[in-house]
Amino acid sequence: MNTPQTAPALPMPTLRSIDGILHVEDLALPAIAERFGTPTYVYSRAALTAAFEAWREALGDRRSLVCYAVKANSNLGILSVFAALGAGFDIVSGGELARVIAAGGDPAKVVFSGVGKRREEMRQALEAGIGCFNVESAAELERLDAVAGELGRKAPIALRVNPDVDPKTHPYISTGLKSNKFGVAFDEALTLYRRATSLPNLHISGIACHIGSQLLDPAPMAEAGQKVLGLVDQLAAEGITLEHIDLGGGVGIRYRDERAPTVADYLAPLLAVFAGRSETLCFEPGRSLVGNAGLLLTRIEYLKPGEEKNFAIVDAAMNDLARPALYDAWHEVVEVAPRAADAARYEVVGPICESGDFLAHDRSLAVAEGDLLAILSAGAYGMTMSSNYNTRPRAAEVIVDRDHAHLVRERETVAALYAGEHALR
Fold this sequence. Notes:
Blueprint: E1 4-6, E2 15-18, E3 21-24, E4 27-28, H1 29-36, E5 40-44, H2 45-59, E6 64-69, H3 76-84, E7 88-91, H4 94-102, E8 110-112, H5 119-128, E9 132-135, H6 138-151, E10 155-162, E11 184-185, H7 189-198, E12 202-208, H8 218-237, E13 244-246, H9 263-273, E14 280-283, H10 287-290, E15 294-304, E16 311-314, H11 323-327, E17 333-335, E18 344-349, E19 358-365, E20 372-375, E21 396-401, E22 404-409, H12 414-417
Parallel strand pairs: 5-21, 6-7, 6-14, 7-8, 8-9, 9-10, 10-11, 10-12, 12-13, 13-14, 16-18
Antiparallel strand pairs: 1-2, 2-3, 3-4, 5-15, 15-16, 15-20, 17-20, 18-19, 21-22
């Protein structure tokens, strides 16, 4: 009889051990490796659904819209799960908009963020009928008005204001300080809103802010919300009334030993700031919806002992999961079928010709060549940040639904990588 054993130390809620073998939901990871090969990204539909429902439950009957941040994981399978749940989408490119539409998302629930929107992307979004442009500069405001005029349309806008609040996160994913490239300066926002009222092809719909990612303390976002609310009231005093307030995303998750807040706990002080308000509150979570709903499944090619370090050389690499090399980020690494043998300390590295090609430092593993490893918390900013460095085809992607595996991205082939290139003869 199969005996499921929940592994409370693991951050992925639907990852469990059954008779000593790791399963995602009811499907054994070795079966996934046998069918689809490695490296492969494996996601759990149940975990995706539960993460989204946590946002819906925390918001209760408050007028709100949860817009999944597509940049976290843009696979059509992931997007289709959220579209079916009624999610909106936060995009930062025309390509992401095309993905949302292909996955069945509602363009009217799309917000378009990002500092460098091109004219053709603006046209694409206007023709699709998106919900709102989050405008991030005075120059963008003028360009959007011109493009909308050319199409004979009104562009719905919100200004993304920079509240200059320290989010207490990694500097590379901090977005709300004066020194960041994002948003318009808080003390310039009123002037830009006044300018927007004079532009004939814009409709002022709301206001937006986003202070950073992997936020573990609710206090900075509540502080930013308080500043935004003051500006909303100042705008109302001038006759500029807003339909929605976009408070961004950025809720953190547990990768290692972080004390990540629940969505309800994170939102509680923020919702208190906006208690009694009539505006729709919009949120743009990404990592908190997908980060711990996915893992990267990889196989050990070689074990290489050394005088100072032992190396477990796996078939995944920094091109598949860039976060460790880019941020020195921690991802838990666990054996799919733990051995009874004594564990040793290993550097978990890939085959790429870079000293920075590592997935984990100094991990205790009881393994042999050919064993499978699961690299956890890889659902966000894993596949979307992957590359073809060293002419390596990108991994396959699979969504598990109970005991079924759905291939939602085929593994790339080497031939496909250079199909659009042309040799000189």
